[in-house]
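tokens incoming
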């Protein structure tokens, strides 16, 4: 086996390729969030609002640990390229969807590719850069989330308002093609010297059977208590089966030894809760701006941008601090404190909230989320054995996606339940029954033109009464989003407490003039 050395110029191009690839995946959530109101109006079904997010994150989450295991066996490059192709295929299908059900299915396909991309990017960073440099370069690569979130909401809003929501998926094609070309020509075909000879199919199957029922149970609402209990029980049984299988597996998809090291296991917890917190804002702030304040998709994209600017700045600052001084525990505690403050401020918003207030609140939340991102990757990669870096990095990404998936499912139930409860308490007795039904429809009350048309049908004597009821319906919508943000404070508290138990993995090592891959060989 020969030592593989990479020149600095080669690393620069490869780093650009990694950043382009992560940008492709990161753009997805922020672009889609600004278009969801238009998608729901097109296909109908506010009760499905969270599902395009949930299904994407679910399949992305499942793909990540599988991809990590495959990467340890076959190397980065083939898995990386397959992930990009899968993502682009899902994007085309989403753009061609003719119903909400089709869109949800195609988002699942797209999510598989997205998970493979994210896992491949951060595993490659761990393999290319030594521990002392990982914080810096992880911060640079992670900043693509911030850049995507600056570009995404604005581009998503503009495209939705001017070209239609379908083009938010088609816009992935040129960027994805460019990313694939860069990776093909710049990424070496590394393969671990300690190649494993089997794929943990049993572990993969048991994990899928544990998580899918769990997400379904969390997403279901209404009078189906027995079904939800059955799903929870089945999920618990399959989780136990997964643990048993992983204990016996020679090549576990998620090595249980990770949970014995607080540097890794607490990083998983931080990744889970920070991502769940971030997703609450990505999902519901654009809807709040469009539905409650009655602005355009473009404006909602502009309002969410400060959050991502805060994320971008904090990610780079924290990455530099980790590389130079460590202090992962203190930074993690501070990150969740800032996130909790941000969520509290967002929970105070109502129908009279100004754009400036929303911008400030989002910037605070984004800064807290950005602080946590480099910490989880660097601490885990530094603590994990070299031959398990791929699996460890994928595990961090897995728990990050799990946070988004579980969070989006819970948020959907909270929002749907509070909207239904709020509408049931409204007194609309003086209005005709057909108008009452229309005002209980979120697709109607968030569309100013439709409301204006309905108002023309109301007798003049009841116009003031109608206006009062309409304002109250907007209050119901604002209140439902209020409870989502309020719930996230609970997540921030758990993360804050858990961060105190984080073990800091040492990152300072002797530097070398070039970056070497002693444990890798050309395939």
């Amino acid at each position: 086996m020969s030592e593989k050395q990479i020149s600095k110029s080669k690393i620069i191009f490869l780093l650009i390729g990694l950043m382009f690839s992560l940008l492709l995946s990161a753009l997805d959530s922020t672009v889609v969030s600004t278009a969801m109101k238009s998608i729901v109006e097109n296909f109908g079904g506010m009760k499905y609002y969270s599902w395009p997010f949930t299904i994407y994150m679910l399949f992305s989450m499942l793909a990540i640990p599988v991809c990590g295991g495959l990467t340890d066996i076959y190397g980065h490059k083939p898995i990386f390229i397959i992930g990009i192709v899968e993502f682009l295929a899902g994007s085309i299908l989403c753009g061609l969807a003719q119903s909400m059900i089709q869109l949800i299915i195609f988002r699942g396909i797209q999510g598989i590719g997205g998970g493979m991309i994210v896992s491949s990017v951060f595993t490659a960073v761990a393999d290319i850069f030594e521990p002392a440099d990982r914080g810096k370069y992880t911060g640079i690569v992670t900043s693509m989330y911030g850049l995507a979130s600056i570009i995404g909401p604005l581009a998503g809003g503009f495209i939705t308002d001017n070209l239609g929501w379908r083009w938010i998926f088609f816009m992935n094609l040129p960027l994805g093609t460019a990313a694939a070309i860069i990776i093909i020509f710049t990424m070496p075909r590394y393969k671990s010297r300690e190649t494993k000879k089997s794929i943990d199919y049993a572990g993969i199957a048991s994990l899928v059977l544990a998580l899918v029922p769990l997400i379904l149970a969390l997403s279901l609402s209404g009078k189906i208590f027995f079904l939800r209990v059955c799903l929870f029980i089945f999920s618990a049984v399959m989780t136990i089966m997964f643990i048993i299988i992983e204990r016996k597996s020679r090549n576990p998809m998620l090595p249980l030894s990770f949970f014995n090291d607080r540097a890794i296991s607490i990083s998983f917890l931080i990744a889970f809760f920070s991502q769940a917190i971030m997703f609450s804002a990505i999902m519901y702030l654009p809807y709040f701006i469009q539905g409650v304040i009655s602005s355009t998709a473009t404006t909602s994209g502009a309002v969410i941008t400060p959050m991502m600017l805060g994320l971008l700045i904090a990610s780079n600052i924290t990455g530099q601090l980790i590389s130079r001084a460590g202090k992962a525990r203190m930074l993690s505690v501070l990150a969740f404190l800032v996130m909790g403050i941000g969520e509290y401020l967002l929970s105070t918003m109502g129908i009279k909230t100004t754009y400036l207030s929303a911008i400030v609140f989002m910037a605070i939340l984004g800064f807290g989320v950005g602080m946590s991102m480099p910490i989880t990757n660097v601490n885990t990669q530094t603590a994990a054995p070299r031959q398990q870096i791929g699996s460890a990095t994928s595990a961090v990404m897995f728990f990050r996606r799990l946070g988004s998936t579980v969070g989006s499912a819970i948020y959907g139930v909270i929002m749907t339940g509070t909207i239904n409860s709020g509408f049931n308490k409204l007194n609309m007795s003086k209005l005709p029954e057909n108008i009452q039904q229309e005002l209980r429809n979120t697709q109607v009350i968030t569309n100013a033109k439709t409301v204006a048309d309905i108002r023309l049908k109301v007798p003049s004597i009841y116009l003031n009464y109608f206006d009062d009821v309409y304002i109250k319906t907007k209050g119901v919508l604002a209140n439902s989003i209020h409870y989502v943000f309020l719930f996230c404070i609970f997540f921030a508290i758990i993360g804050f407490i858990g961060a105190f138990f984080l073990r800091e993995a040492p990152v300072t090592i002797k530097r070398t003039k070039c970056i070497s891959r002693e444990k890798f060989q050309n395939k």
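note: Confidence is low (pLDDT under 50) at residues 509-523.
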